[in-house]
Design goal:
Elements lengths: L1 H16 L6 H5 L1 H82 L7 H6 L12 H12 L6 H22 L7 E2 L3 E3 L1 H4 L8 E9 L4 E7 L13 E8 L32 H6 L11 H19 L5 E5 L7 E6 L4 E11 L6 E3 L17 E4 L1 H12 L8 H19 L6 H14 L10 H18 L20 H4 L8 H5 L1 H24 L6 H11 L1
Parallel strand pairs: 3-8
Antiparallel strand pairs: 1-3, 2-3, 4-5, 5-10, 6-7, 7-8, 8-9, 9-10
Helix pairs in contact: 6-9, 11-12, 11-13, 11-16, 12-13
Protein name: Inositol 1,4,5-trisphosphate receptor-interacting protein
GO molecular function: protein kinase inhibitor activity
Subcellular location: Cell membrane; Nucleus outer membrane
């Protein structure tokens, strides 16, 4: 019974608790909350899925970026390795190129006179000669006889007259100078085209150089660009002249470089043997506050001395003497009462040691040459050796050799062309240098008179080659093949060759003008020669051509 009653009570209590009216709201919201929770769970799942996709995409992008960076790094590394290899090849190529260039220059410097066997090169050259009508032997012979010989016949008489007057003028100059203080003037020497017999252009001008020396107890100590000290390229061909006491040590005494005590005396130099103060050094024509000879001071002194000398002897002559050119201090002109005049240059020079190389105080300059570094830099002239070399070679050539004729014709053509189109960088000295090279390179028989046409063509082709390469070496400087009979100083033979066309590399405008003038001269050559040539019958010309064949 009690158990049954307990069961009934438990059933009633369970019914009451689970009756829907007892908790209506709580039991009624259970289905709604379940759906909402399910919906939120689905939304959360969807958001988590999207987040997962986004994260996967970001990871994929990062991996792609990392791979791209790794690829770029690999490419950069490979490019660096390639660049290093390329730089190594480039450096190696440059080294090889420099070695080849140095070898080529050494070969050229060692063989720059050996042009006699370069027949193939001469054939390859001459591009400017294509289409140019070159005068034949008969025309050249007629031109030379009429234009050259017809106008140069009185040069010997003019040289004799100028030399005699110059000797008299210098003797008077010595008499008006103070022997104890002024420079000592020696006898003059004739140089240049007038004394080498190839001057063709009027007016004829004699070039005379006058060596001078300082008064006792002084002497000149000369230093050139090839004496061991380094000179910049624009000072090659120049030198300096120091005025020293004859008993002064060449290297200089230590007493000039250190201060000795009042109770100490140099055993080599006494107080009366010390260097003169700067004022007296200027009296010795030195640059201010230096011991170096000043070219401008020398020319001023020389002009004053020449003027005094002329005033002393002018009564002996029936003509006037004056300085003719302001830019050429040594240019003098003799004026006769008849109106005729004779021009000549009288230029003071300093002898280099015991040779016939001279430092010249004033040198006629062309537009090609740069300005002189300073008035203490003196240009070196080898004119005396050039004249001797031509005389020496002429003794070995056939009778009536054509070497001087070639230079005269080429000088005339170039001068005539410059008068038409204006000056160029080429000078007569360049033309003479070409001849000197060919005289040394070619055998004597090649300069027979009947080979005038061939040698003239050789000179023009050689000049064209030099213009193309911008290289024309000085004949004496660096030339180890100078004949020993000349007694040429060995220091200049061992020096580096001096390129006379070096300014062409720096002055492109002058170089272009020079090349254009040269080509124009070639084109006008026949017309210029025919203008001064006597008419030659065609049959005679053909006969000469057949004989030459």
């Amino acid at each position: 019974m009690p158990v049954g009653l307990f069961r009934v009570c438990l059933l009633v209590i369970t019914a009451i608790v689970n009756h829907p009216l007892l908790f209506p709201k709580e039991n009624g919201t259970v289905p709604e909350n379940t759906e909402e929770i399910i919906q939120k769970m689905k939304e959360r799942e969807e958001s988590l899925r999207l987040e997962r996709l986004r994260l996967e995409q970001e990871i994929a992008d990062q991996e792609a970026t990392q791979q791209a960076l790794e690829k770029v790094a690999v490419v950069v590394e490979e490019s660096k390795e390639e660049k290093v290899r390329w730089d190594m090849w480039t450096a190696l190529s440059m080294v090889i190129f420099l070695l080849i260039e140095l070898w080529r220059q050494d070969f050229q410097e060692g063989n720059w006179q050996d042009i006699g066997g370069e027949e193939d090169d001469m054939a390859v050259l001459g591009k400017a000669f294509k289409g140019v009508a070159f005068p034949d032997k008969a025309v050249l012979a007629s031109f030379y006889e009429k234009r050259i010989l017809g106008t140069t016949g009185d040069m010997a008489r003019m040289r004799e007259m100028v030399e005699g007057f110059a000797d008299d003028l210098l003797e008077a100059l010595r008499s008006v100078c103070n022997r104890d203080a002024d420079m000592e003037v020696e006898d003059c020497m004739g140089v240049g085209s007038m004394y080498e017999n190839w001057r063709v252009r009027k007016p004829f001008v004699c070039d005379l150089i006058v060596p001078f020396a300082p008064p006792e107890p002084y002497c000149f100590r000369c230093q050139t660009w090839c004496s061991g000290d380094s000179f910049p390229p624009d000072e090659q061909g120049y030198g300096t002249i120091k005025v020293c006491r004859a008993d002064e040590d060449v290297t200089g005494c230590i007493c000039d470089k250190t201060k000795l005590g009042e109770d100490m005396l140099c055993l080599l130099h006494s107080q009366v043997n010390t260097t003169k103060p700067s004022g007296e050094m200027e009296d010795l024509l030195c640059f201010k506050n230096t011991q170096y000879l000043d070219a401008d001071q020398v020319m001023k002194w020389f002009q004053i001395a020449v003027t005094k000398a002329w005033n002393r002897i002018s009564h002996k002559y029936e003509f006037d003497l004056s300085f003719s050119l302001l830019d050429s201090p040594g240019a003098l002109k003799i004026k006769f009462k008849s109106g005729k005049s004779i021009a000549f240059n009288l230029t003071p020079v300093v002898q280099y040691e015991n040779s016939d190389v001279y430092f010249i105080s004033h040198f006629p300059r062309s537009s090609l040459e740069a300005d002189i570094p300073s008035s203490t830099h003196w240009f070196l002239t080898f004119a005396v050796y050039e004249r001797r070399f031509i005389q020496l070679v002429s003794k070995t050539l056939p009778a009536s050799a054509c070497h001087i004729s070639c230079l005269q014709i080429l000088s005339f053509l170039h001068g005539k062309q410059c008068s038409l189109t204006g000056p160029s960088g080429l000078t007569n000295y360049h033309l003479k240098t070409v001849l000197l090279h060919l005289l040394q390179a070619r055998p004597s028989q090649d300069w027979a008179p009947e080979k005038l046409e061939a040698r003239l063509q050789d000179m023009l082709k050689f000049l064209e080659k030099c213009l193309h390469e911008k290289k024309l070496y000085h004949f004496f400087i660096g030339n180890g093949k100078v004949p020993a009979e000349l007694g040429f100083p060995i220091i200049f033979q061992k020096a580096e060759p001096l390129n006379l066309f070096r300014p062409f590399v720096l002055r492109r405008d002058i170089y272009r003008k020079t090349v254009d003038t040269f080509h124009e001269m070639l084109r006008n050559m026949s017309a210029l020669i025919n203008e001064y040539t006597v008419h030659i019958p065609l049959a005679h010309t053909n006969g000469i051509r057949k004989e030459s064949l």
